[in-house]
Amino acid sequence: MWSVPILSFVAIVLLSTGVAAFVWHEGVIERDEVWPGEGWAGGEYTVELSHDGSKVLFLGYGGSDEVRVLDREFGLLGTWEPSGENMSVEGATWATTDNMISVWGSNGSGPDFLSILSVPGFDHLAVPNMTFNDTLVDYTSARLGADGIILAVGGRCQHGSSRLQVVEVNTNHLINDLGWKENTTIVDIEADGIYFVVVDERGFVTSIETRQWNEDMRWEGSGGHPTAESIGYFNGDRIWIVGYASGGVRVFGHTPIDMVGEAETGTGPVLGVASLFPDPRYYAVAVPDGEGGTDISGWIHNDTWGEKLWSNTLKEDGRVLSMHADPAVSGRFLAAFDDGSIATYSTTIQLNFPPSINFTSENPEEWVGMNTVTGEVYDEAGIVIWVRYRFNDEGEWMDAEGTSEFSITFNADDFMPATNTINVWTSDGVHEAQANYDFFMYEPEEDESNFWVWFSGSTILVLVVLLVVIYIVRRRRGTVEGE
């Protein structure tokens, strides 16, 4: 149901005529299928994929205390509910294997219960007695790691302090008992087989290295309330992605753990995060769209320039409750919605080359009066956001008519005699490109015919004047001689 081939991704630098043009790779997130739900009792529920992606764990789907396991085709494998009359389930998580889960919750007026169940039979397996000092009585999170051998449990002890306890399940040996910083509540524990990563209510992130059973801590956070978490892996390096109520996302990595990136992804709270591809620097984020729906987008982390929006923004009508990467298929993830439906998504990679500008109009014989220059913008993805222009590298940029096909109309009489340039600038939302269109304005030629008309007229006028003068002079001489 979920298997879709994913394109490999690369970044390419093209060199042409001594100018480097960066070719950006971007993601395209698409919804593949929607499971409409079956037996949903209404209300909120939680969803978690097993570490191999073969099974899906639901809590609260068929009722507030129901634990349900489905296969990756959403076929029901079994359900479990606590047998005690006053017992209620508060949390359930996968082990780092696909055949065990941890379930915890309230036991009426007494201490909380913690069960380790097999999947899909829901048989009770060994459970630590927690009989040592400062026994946890209020569980807030738990995770089985190291193939079900080691259990990390967060909660509050009988004295009210927040603690993390790491226990060897088969021997009930307490490996670590850590009082939590500032007595903050532990809200989530993740595991990748080697590390436990612990997130508390103030957004601080802690890494516990399980091979040596020593704490390898690097507290990070700034008081932000965490709302979503995800794990990724990259060449042996682990990256942990945490979303916050503010709409921000922080990326943690390296050993000891350190915050390596931070981004504001939208109006909070972050509803879900999911690592994408074997390279976990690519991740998906879900945030409210302000109208009751959800915006899902892809982001990329880079150690040099930080976090960058890397994909389209997919708008969904419903509100996402959680998101989870599919470990079995690169680039795939699922989202659980508040109407009981589950949607699956794929992310593919495409290279985004810069757009190119081509002028299509021919030069007129003479640039006089109003003229129109036309052109086309070609973009491989077919996206042209705008086309703008100005003259001679001066003045404000103006919008041309059209985008993929554009036109620019101007009055040539406004320009001085010289080579003039129309600067054209366009963008596809990722890249920008410019091109120049030159037109030459000549010095106006003098009209020689007007000169000869003037010369002839002037000559005739002079001759007429001379003739008149000669005539008058002769008349006067004739008159004088007659006297």
Query: What is the rounded distance between the termini?
Result: 136 Å
Query: How are strands sequenced across the largest beta sheet?
Result: 1-2-28-27-26
Q: Fill in the CATH topology of the largest domain.
A: Methylamine Dehydrogenase, Chain H
Q: Please, what is the CATH homologous superfamily of the largest domain?
A: YVTN repeat-like/Quinoprotein amine dehydrogenase
Basic shape:
rod-shaped
**SS field, number of helical segments:** 1
Mean pLDDT: 83
CATH architecture annotation of the largest domain: 7 Propeller
In total, the number of strands is 35
Structural class: mainly beta
Radius of gyration: 38 Å
| Strand content bin | over 45%
Task: Tell me the domain tally.
Answer: 2
Task: Briefly summarize what is shown.
The protein is mainly β and 483 residues long. The protein has 1 helix and 35 strands. It folds into 2 domains: 27-352, Methylamine Dehydrogenase, Chain H (7 Propeller); 356-441, Immunoglobulins (Immunoglobulin-like), CATH 2.60.40.
Properties at a glance:
483 residues; mainly beta; four-stranded antiparallel beta sheet; 52% strand
